[in-house]
Amino acid sequence: MKIFPHQAPALAELQARAETYFAGKWREIPSLRTRFASLVAGSTGSGKSFITSYLAEKVGSSILRTATPGWMPCGAHNRAVKETLALIACHIAAHEKTILVLDEIDKLYKPSTGANGASGGDTSWLSYIRGELYEIMDGRFPTGMNIDIEEGDYVLSVDKLSEKLRNSVFIVGVGTFQDYFDQIPKKTMGFGGGTEPIPQIDAAEVATRLPRELSNRFHGALIVLPDLEPDNYREIVSQTTKSLPNWIQPAFLAAANIRINDAIATKKGVRFVEEALLDALVATRGTFDDLEPLCI
């Protein structure tokens, strides 16, 4: 899949920051801290995951994704020692450059008042997760933490892990901030025949959807991915069709054509392709008997 023209500015800004970070000239200015961690916002299906994967290809970096709501803090029945923090530590130890994607970062904040005035509030669990996340974003692993890197059969000290975290990991926070995007009138987002321009996203307003301590750790210039435009949906169908085996192409095109108008209207994004593909597989299931069996 390719980057669409309206996504290019977001990629260009992310790429400029990542290349500057990995170039390392900022290390020659030790008296000031350069804030490279970048926050990407966009509604569901706008291509946030795709653009971070594309970024990793462009800068020649490995990529590691972790969904922050599923973060397992240290002390959570000892699971974190084998999961979240160890996963990050093992990955950065094994790779020269890493893009660390903190996905669903907007889920780490619960307002004191929920929908319809219901009680919301924070939880100790979220506080523990955020505490460890702040440490990672500040370039530190928890004191006293040693990770056994099985691939190399050695132990890295916290100091060495933290040094590599500070010097070879470009952090990207990703969030849908769906409640904010849902407030924007649909006609300004390209639907209903409206001709008004797409409005500027208020970065300060988006930042209120995060704890202040968290938003302050990101670069203040928010990177926004607009919703896919109708022509983008048609291009995605065309690209996907070309990548599929011949036997399923007609069924996929038929399923995509049925779904595309609803996908555009509901801003479903690239997920509608996955749904169309399932429809096509179900429709062609009778042809599976004609396929050559796999030799294992």
Q: How is this structure best summarized?
A:
With 296 residues, the chain is α/β, with parallel strands linked by helices. It has helices at residues 8-23, 48-59, 84-94, 124-137, 158-168, 178-182, 203-207, 212-215, 230-243, 249-265, 271-283; strands at residues 38-41, 62-67, 98-103, 147-149, 154-156, 169-175, 223-224. The chain has 2 domains: 5-224, P-loop containing nucleotide triphosphate hydrolases (Rossmann fold, 3-Layer(aba) Sandwich); 230-290, no CATH class.
Care to describe what's here?
41% of the residues lie in helices and 10% in strands. With 296 residues, the protein is of the alpha/beta class. The protein has 2 domains: 5-224, Rossmann fold; 230-290, no CATH class. It has a 5-stranded parallel β-sheet, with helices on both faces. It has a two-stranded antiparallel ribbon with strand order 4-5. α3 links the parallel β2 and β3. α1 crosses α2 (48-59) and α10 (249-265) packs antiparallel against α11. The chain is globular.
